[in-house]
Amino acid sequence: MSRPPYGIIAVLMVGAFIAFLNNTLLNIALPSIMRDLKVEPTTVQWLTTGFMLVNGILIPTTAHLIQKYSVRRIFLSAMCLFAVGTILAGTAHIFSILLAGRMLQASGSAILMPTLMNVMLVSFPVEKRGTAMGVFGLILMSAPAIGPTLSGWIIEHYDWRMLFHFITPIAIVVILIGFFIIKDKKEKVDLHLDFLSLALSSFGFGGILYGFSSAGSKGWDSPLVYGTIIVGAVCLTVFILKQLKQDRPMLNFRIYKYPMFALSSAITMIVNMAMFSGMLLLPIYVQDIRGISPMDAGLLLLPGAILMSLMSPITGRLFDKFGGRILAVIGLAITTATTYMFSKLELDTSYTHLIILYSIRSLGMSMAMMPVSTNGLNQLPTRFYPHGTAMNNTMNQVAGAIGTALLVTVMSTHTETRAKEIGAAAKATMGHATQPPTAEALAQMKQEILMKATLDGINYSFMVATGIAAVALILSFFIKRAKQASDPGEVKPARKAVTHKLAEN
């Protein structure tokens, strides 16, 4: 095998790193954005779910793009989209412009990550792929290590828009380096994008996600909520059936006939749904309920992120040696247990306890995600790698977005219910009081009720996330070490070779 193109991989990794860093920067900033732009949690979560929705819609096109265009052209286009989105988000003074900037960033990020994954898969043999993916994970996972702490420091000293301003020059420099370093060319391929499939996938994934996201503010009985979910489900069903009938599908669902890929895809989707509970709910708990500064909130997430990034190459080596099942079972057992412990948060849970718990949870995640994903991809024939990476990235983004929307909706709905219950109990208590409470006492009581109800809502969401993680743990027991399947397109040549060898004997 020829020497891997380390120069191209390095430039792609830097681009992917800043895209990933930008996403992790925003989690700590969400409470500040809520206050500044005067939006509710169910609205601000669209900065996360909207980003993942655009990823989910566009990633299916990446298999088509990778086959049709050169890495140079895809990379430069993706980075330009990301840079324009970053500039727009950094100048936003209303939520809609900020969301539009995030959507543009997502369109660049969606194309970038599968391109890098495909270059990695093609560049390294199966026996070295776990280690290579581990190093790749180390670099990318250092973004969550730097992101929250850097974000907290910037928000304490500057406006939250500075999160985008400091990324902009880095993105421009990466575009210039990529322009001069990446020189690969590709012969013209006669492939045409199926716009009907793109529309069906957009309405399918978009409808389901919009329904889940809107349930928190409009209620599950709203026609808009269940109507968009039904429309989304119908469009998605038609989209899948259409892809199965096509010779060159936009998203190749036939790869699910490989059992280890299908299993790994299901597990990583479920884990992604549970994972975002910690990323989204913990900053709200720490800053809004506990009143901890953004800087300290970022520092709280730092040890877990460092542990995750350090574990990535170790996990890669362990995967090459022992396979995916043992790592996945241990990792998901840790993830499930720690997610359950997060459902027991109190108004005075210690800062140290939160750091330790989040760090152990991150350890569990790092042990599970990469081995499970790599094991599934290893079973695919080489020509299906672009489809495998596109499918994984699409389903993980969509699952993460639905998980985020679901858990925020569960939190908001339970918070509202608990606020009414606690408020009714408080009114009953006041009815027996000899003197009516002062306006100041009433205001303080309302604040206490809201904090207690929000805490109950967060705990309830973590309990739902525990159940989701437990499903992934059960599925992990069925993992087997994958061997690369023979390519259906290469069956005849293989048979000829066997026949020729038998004739010689």
Automatic annotation (TrEMBL):
Q: Where are the transmembrane segments?
A: 7-26, 46-66, 78-100, 106-126, 133-155, 161-181, 193-212, 224-241, 261-285, 297-314, 326-343, 460-479
Pfam families associated with the record: MFS_1 (PF07690)
Domain spans labelled Major facilitator superfamily (MFS) profile: 8-484
Q: Which locations, inside or outside the cell, does it occupy?
A: Cell membrane
Principal localisation: membrane
So which domain of life are we looking at? Bacteria
Q: How does it sit in the membrane?
A: Multi-pass membrane protein
Print the keywords alphabetically.
Cell membrane, Membrane, Transmembrane, Transmembrane helix, Transport
Q: Which SUPFAM superfamilies match?
A: MFS general substrate transporter
Cross-referenced InterPro entries, in alphabetical order?
EmrB-like, MFS, MFS_dom, MFS_trans_sf
Family listed = Belongs to the major facilitator superfamily. EmrB family.
Q: Mind telling me what this protein is named?
A: DHA2 family efflux MFS transporter permease subunit
Name the source organism.
Neobacillus paridis
